[in-house]
Amino acid sequence: FETGKISPEEFHEAACELFGMKIGFGKFREIWNDIFKENMALTRWLREMSASHRVYIISNTNALHYAHLLEKFDFFRWVNGTVASNEAGMRKPDPRIFYKALQTAGVRPAQAFYLDDVWEHVYSARRCGMRAYHYVCPHMAQESWKHFLSRPSGW
């Protein structure tokens, strides 16, 4: 589902069958999307960054979540672009999604600051040459950014 290989309707049908549920698509979508809470500290920091730097998002997502996120969270409106797994046909940690993001952003790997809360994704991005950092909290994200800026030529 996160690589766009099946439609939301097919996913709904498969989930209902798997869990023995009888629930309409609209209600399913509402429940499926009711997992997101915005990290306001991180959102504020990203908004500040977007005033002076290009910001792109690489997201493992699906069509239902992505449509919901675009509607609910403003930060998708002020970033420069998004590489969504369901549209790209691949998901993190597949290196191809990082190369696609680099191509979309028009930067070389060593020029990219990448932040993720999943170590496996950070490791994969680093193997692609990106300067990737593990996200733990907004303060550490800012410290990682300072580290990135203090070493403009790489690690």
Reconstruct the topology from this structure.
Layout: H1 8-19, H2 25-32, H3 40-50, E1 56-59, H4 63-72, H5 75-78, E2 81-84, H6 85-88, H7 95-105, E3 113-116, H8 119-127, E4 131-134, H9 138-150
Parallel strand pairs: 1-2, 3-4
How would you describe what is shown here?
With 155 residues, the protein is mainly α. It contains 9 helices and 4 strands. The protein has helices spanning 8-19, 25-32, 40-50, 63-72, 75-78, 85-88, 95-105, 119-127, 138-150, and strands at residues 56-59, 81-84, 113-116, 131-134. The protein has a two-stranded parallel ribbon with strand order 1-2. It has a two-stranded parallel sheet with strand order 3-4.
Q: What is the terminal-to-terminal distance?
A: 36 Å
Helix content range = 40-55%
Shape: globular
Question: Which sheet architecture does the biggest sheet show?
Answer: 2 strands, parallel
Strand order of the largest sheet: 1-2
Helix and strand sequence? HHHEHHEHHEHEH
Number of helices: 9
SS-based class? mainly alpha
Query: pLDDT below 50 for ≥5 consecutive residues: which ranges?
Result: none
> What is the CA-based Rg, rounded?
17 Å
| Proportion of beta-strand residues | 5-15%
Average pLDDT works out at: 94
Count of beta strands: 4
